[in-house]
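Predicting holo structure, fe (ii) ion bound.
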Amino acid sequence: MCPSHGFEYDGTGRVRVIPANGRVSPVPQNFQVKAYHVAEAADFIWLWYGDDEPRYQPKFFEDIDNSFEYSEFWESWNVHYSRAIENQLDPMHLPFVHYNTIGRGNRTVVDEPIVKWVDDTMFYFYVFNRVDDGTPAKRADQIQGDARTQVYLEFKFPNITDNMRVTAAFAPVDEENTVLYIRYYVRLTKIRLLDKLIAIAGIPFNKVVLHQDRAVVLTQVPKKSELKMNENLIPGDSPILEYRKKRAILKGESGGSNG
Ligand SMILES: [Fe+2]
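Done. Tokens:
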């Protein structure tokens, strides 16, 4: 229903009721908007804004279920979604942008992150940030040990456990704007209300961290990233490169173009 004039639509985009004309009045054929495929999952509404049938079903993190409580907030950034996403895939900015929060400890050397594709559309990357001990950053194939013991993605919070998760959703608005939607999932006590309160109490800290990112990402040019663009990358950028490659494939291109 339109919040402005109360027009009521059906799933095909046809207007069914125009309150100002009286609920019984027939609605002319031309009162029709474009309809998009939507689905509801994990407390999100997922919208497929392509013209064709959805090629992917909504997919959320399998290990976040109803045993968690969550808090949430969102804000609009004047950035293309690609830059907002790549910022979260970048382990190198932690000791600089987040020097006093999640990047404490001056771990400036970034051994090449190990990227593990879970399936066609999802990957984890494992971060090996360390204090500079005079040795150069290692490549991924030189790293010993089990990568799974390491932190991954943006889960760099101190004391992070399986029972606390921070998720970020990036909703493209247009070529220059993105809505960032943060959820903080908590499953720490047996009391759901208490978990909820802990989750809510975590919002200010998550906001501080996110605003450290925002200050940097808003300044990035060009606004949109591409697989083939004039940027020099280093091994620490490997998760970003993986993202750009996959995005180019999903868009059905070999690099560069709209979207
Ligand atoms: Fe960050």
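Residues 87, 93, 97-98, 213 surround fe (ii) ion (CB under 6 Å).
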